[in-house]
TrEMBL record:
One of its GO terms (cellular component) is nucleus. Belongs to the Rab GDI family. This is FAD/NAD(P)-binding domain-containing protein. GO terms for biological process: small GTPase-mediated signal transduction; vesicle-mediated transport. PANTHER family: CHM, RAB ESCORT PROTEIN 1, RAB GDP-DISSOCIATION INHIBITOR. InterPro entries: FAD/NAD-bd_sf, GDP_dissociation_inhibitor. Pfam families: GDI. Residues 193-207 have a biased composition (Polar residues). It comes from Ascodesmis nigricans.
Amino acid sequence: MDEFTLPSTEWDAVIVGTGVKLSLLACALSRAKLSVLQLDPSPHYGSNETALSLSELEEHIASLSSPTAQFKLHSTPVHRDRDYTFTLAPHLIYWNSPLLEFLRDVKMTTSFTWLPLGSWWVWLSDEAVKERGTAKSGGLEGAMANLAAGAVKAGGTVRKKAAWNKNRSKNSAPPVTGALEALAAGKPADEQPASTWGEPSTSTSAATLRRHGDLREVPCTVEDIAWSQDLEGQDRANLGRFLRFIQQSASPEPTSGESNSSASLLAQNADTPLTTFINANFPLPPATIASIHSLTLLPTPPSSTPLHLAVSRLKTHLFSLGSIAEIRSAAALTLSYGGSAELCQVWSRGAAVAGGINILSCDVTPEPLPASSSDADDRIPLKLSTHPSTPITAKHLIMELEPSSWSEESYHAIYLLSTQLPPLFQKKLSTDAVSPAAVVVTMPPDQDAKTGLGNSTPIYLQIRSSATGECARGECVIYAVTAEEKERALLKRAVEMVVEAVDPTTQTGKGSEKIVMSCEYASGDLKRVGVMKGAERRQGELEKVVSEEVREKRVVKVRPLKRDIVFDEGTVEECRAVYERIVGTREGFCEPPPEFVGHGEEDE
């Protein structure tokens, strides 16, 4: 490319990468009036959280040069290349997440298009549902309210007796302005609908659980539990008691001198596997435990998932449930046009609007300064691949940790289908004003192959409709993930099983005929491209030309974003800490300068 003139050769911060965290930092530091240069060796914003068209995805998978990375067109797409936007970061964002709280505080919610996730689904055969397991009663038996009393009575009675809803505010109904509308209007946090987990539905009909063959809706509200045909009377009681345990364990210690038995029990069993804990305290059949675990979206099976991790995820899910006025059956949202890739785009643009400079297809190499330079002890010398004749210096160099620091591996696949799978995107409650744009399906561990898969860890499918802008009408996109390399081959079969169960036009054994495109890759493959490809080289060059003292003072490294289905909740806090290190305070983090208000930013 032609070498254009940089506005400066001295920068307060040079940021290498345009991923979620680095783009947030670029925006925050630029808004704090620092001079910011943000670079990325890739031609696309987002680094490893980017979004790509169909042809770009094919090129990207080929560039990984890995046996685990494959791209295949099973049939010729009938729509244009630009009709597709596939993301490497299809995160879901819970309503009560730190990210949404932050975006409300800095008045950036209107920069995005928010869409609701609908129900969670789990694949359980009749045989699996009938299995009773080896649970024994004990633990908290009798210590908590028993949901069974009256739980199978008429729907109206059931809705009035949500045991885990006891003592919650009766004035927690959302305001007239709905939750999604409030987001779009940039309402402050104190004007958002309060959490209404367990609040009775205003629907005039029972919220019965839906089923498509062996694909079953996960029960997580009082109506679901009361009307589930898969639960026996005592199962309903124990499930209700377990959900009440989740609620009480989140409450602060009572001030009256009485201990919080739920919080104490959680502390005592923090590392106990979820299955072991439930069997000892709230005996439930294996299928119900699988349904509970599916709400956590954790990569380990319930038999090895530590209780504290499961409870943390369950709290987030359950306390977000019922908060979105337009779709009270939803707990989470997603971003249209590429998931978290949209965060990268908006924050990088925000940095540019505030005076920062973004350069794509640009790499950086640390270079030694002349011995006579007065900056040798205070700045980092750099050379840009796009401006080899214009050396620059940075007061701070910000980048991701080297790939060698990655410890967790996951295996991903993206599928484009020629069917909409409409039954999955129907409204659950008659009061829901909008339809979900995405759903989550879990294939629970099934080592005995009761479902035909034989997987040892959960397989998760996030199914997204054309409403997300990721595919054309009449199609849907499925993002699949597993934690086990040996089970990569099961992802495609899991997709076929869901298609055969849900799509009325697909015969058993013919699910593969609906797959237009498939691609596979491992999280470790992403170390080989873009900003990660040169990370080890940059670190080696830094060690050669910059003293350890200066590196410790001037080089800042952030953790790569977790390759998780749920948006990394530590993202905002980690970026605040980096901001404080550079600016000297957390005050004003990413807040728009006064001159921006009324010029594209949200007004009060």
